[in-house]
Request: fold
Amino acid sequence: MGRENVNGVRRIVPLHERLRYLQVLQHDDEALLETLLAVRQDYPAGTVLQQEGSQYAQTRILVSGWALRYVTLRDGRRQIINFLLPGDTIGLFGALFSACSTGIDVLTDAVLAELPCADVIDIFRESPRLGAALCWIAGQDERYLEQQIVRIGRLNACLRIAHLFLELRHRLLIGGADQHEAQRIPLAQTLIADALGMSHVHANRSCRELQRIGLLQIENGEFILPDPDALAEYCNFDNSYAIDEGMPRSTRKSLTDF
Amino acid sequence: MGRENVNGVRRIVPLHERLRYLQVLQHDDEALLETLLAVRQDYPAGTVLQQEGSQYAQTRILVSGWALRYVTLRDGRRQIINFLLPGDTIGLFGALFSACSTGIDVLTDAVLAELPCADVIDIFRESPRLGAALCWIAGQDERYLEQQIVRIGRLNACLRIAHLFLELRHRLLIGGADQHEAQRIPLAQTLIADALGMSHVHANRSCRELQRIGLLQIENGEFILPDPDALAEYCNFDNSYAIDEGMPRSTRKSLTDF
DNA sequence: CGCTTCCTTGATTTATGTCAACGTGCGTGG
DNA sequence: CCACGCACGTTGACATAAATCAAGGAAGCG
Reply:
């Protein structure tokens, strides 16, 4: 489960990788999930996947590449709500909403699995275990938004950037990236500014500052985290409980026994 | 459904009121929901309902009163993630997480319905319709967090306050409050500051400014919104699609046919 | 080439935070 | 009953983080 051949290379499917943490899916669930994720679609960098206020076209799962979710204000400024990484879902419960609250753009070339929104609702009938797993994914998304609120609300520019980068690294790891991959953050400074509620000028100066004190490298338009632990120390990043990865044993037992 | 006698007065149950919008619950679902919400518990203002990092004790639904959800930083400052109003859930999918990411305090005297977290997971087996309705509630929560990110990230202090107050009003209305009730915001300025990522001094000055231009009244430690439409105009508050209330007809049909 | 996008830097303005002091109402314990 | 502490609101003076304005440079691309 969770791996597939692409150009002869055995590749991780990040959503499966994420769900593996849960340790509740059984063989049938995995098979069902693989069926649902069978349809793949490629999108080039820059594609608008979803427009603010439009109807949900489909439920999508990011298999590879980065995307971003944003809200545009009347004056044209935008606020990036969060970044979407391999293993993240788009419009998971889209069947339950009449319109999208955010726009979504693909940032890099990306591969998405696509299925009708209604199929997700059917999952709950066919496999409560898989349904619970999807609620867990949705709950994690919400926790990342909480972290984003804390960052923007209470941290200064440098700390915000450091904290965001560590979250992204953490999520890349959860999706199955190796340590080296997870230290690379391919974001333009403009995007960081739009995500963290600051001007691009100030984002630039803050990145430079982090670079100056050795916590960040800037190479070919992407950032490298040379020392994640030092960075975590710098901004008090804590993923022990703020970003939960587990499920209580009792729940796991009740789901697997079912 | 959704009403009960309290001191001889027929009272709205806000979660039911919220779910009524969906128009998918059938008689059995409503009965099941009422069974689950049968156990009520009173808490006085100031009670700590949940500590950051603790295990989820139970799933709770706010029946009356206000609460707040927050994260505390190492230096003691805190960021309020959001406010909880009648009809909001606490730890809805708590069964799926090993620990709480946030603390929750009761702000006013409050009544909560309480049930074991595991019962929520069982709902998905017993009634996919009710399960979908709960996912919709969870999805709405997430949208409120998105709005919070936009506020803190891109609006200045006065606009943030105006926007937050309008969201709270909107949510009070959804929970069944009447127009008059929904114009009353019983929050201390310190709380507004902690929620909107500003100092209490600045929150005070901004509230005064809103009062000066006639968009806000301050009475006995609570705020009144004398003209919600003017306030919405002032801060470009838009609840048409940003805060979705509906569900596509197709989904409703597939759920009710089931 | 000339466009565009992104990054960079300096000068200046503005929004917001910090510090300090004081007032008010309220509950509590003597 | 009063005295006290406490939480909250208020205001002024000042410091600082961040936005804005402006200009120019580097890289990619038709």
About this structure: DSSP finds ten helices and 13 strands in chain B. Chain B has a mean pLDDT of 92. Chain B touches chain A through 56 residues (CB under 8 Å). Residues 66 and 205 of chain B are 25 Å apart (CA to CA).
